[in-house]
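Reopening this one. Same input as before:
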Amino acid sequence: MIRLDPATANPAPPPAVPAWALAAGDASSDADAAFQAGAALGTLDMLARAQPAWAGAWRQRLALKCATASMRLAGRAEDEAALRDAWYLRPTGADPGPAGAILGAWRQLAGQPPAATPDRLAKIVELLGFAWDGAALAALCTEIEELARSGRPAPFAAAAIAAHIVATRPDAELLAWWVADLVLAQSLRWPRPLPLLMAQVFAPAFRAEAGGGKRIRPSERDFERAVCVASVQAAAQACRLAGELSRRAEKLLAVAPKLRAKGAGEVIFLLLNEDAVSGSLTTKDLSRFASRRLFERLQQLEAVRELSGRPIFRLFGL
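Same output, byte for byte:
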């Protein structure tokens, strides 16, 4: 029988961004947009600092959403399902391929403290699929440190570093958004970054005109205001996702004591900390057959969702 920590089994419901802040797209001035961004990020701040049982799954699903938006920016066609397959269905330690590597970069952002070092950035640049020399990456780290010391409001610091990177390397916009989320987390003193802004890059927040128009790229006119508006939308979507995962995690934790399978605790831990888990997972306590039966049981109890839509090579998650 699986025993649970009551503190994680009954967490408080996640907060929601105030409705008035969601009108940021209609903000009449840059100051209004900045104020509304502050309210939205302030709401998200509580979640970013908390450690609910499902925080890992939440962060990795945010990473998946940013990786999916990255595909379009990189001129690739993979969607969420294809990225999940590339990451979760590969043999242990195998290369996930170019698209999976980009997902790996976003997962790494979500899983480590918001520190920038030349070695870390060199690894991220490699995962994102381009080259940048060590001296330039060291200079970028210095720029990030200076921004951290400047005390600029978080959305403006994120906008500044994205603009700096694109001005230096116009082909490095993917890196610009990755670093922008890192700087946002540094500015807000979050223990770990949340992948947020990349998922908004093709949204209305970065369109020059209501209902469409040219995309506003880093350093272009109205870019800082667009980042403020995007911060509001990203925070609201992250809070909504947290609410969904919180409810599903609560259901999973509620049925956990009913599971008798050896190894069930490890599967529940993975479901709470990963975007998805393979339906054919094997561990030292769980055979492929036992794993399949366990996920079938969890489905019967409506405690997990099958995410692939396939009858084979299935993936499960909250």
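So the earlier flakiness isn't reproducible anymore. For the record, The beta strands are 207-209, 212-215, 277-278, 305-306, 315-317.
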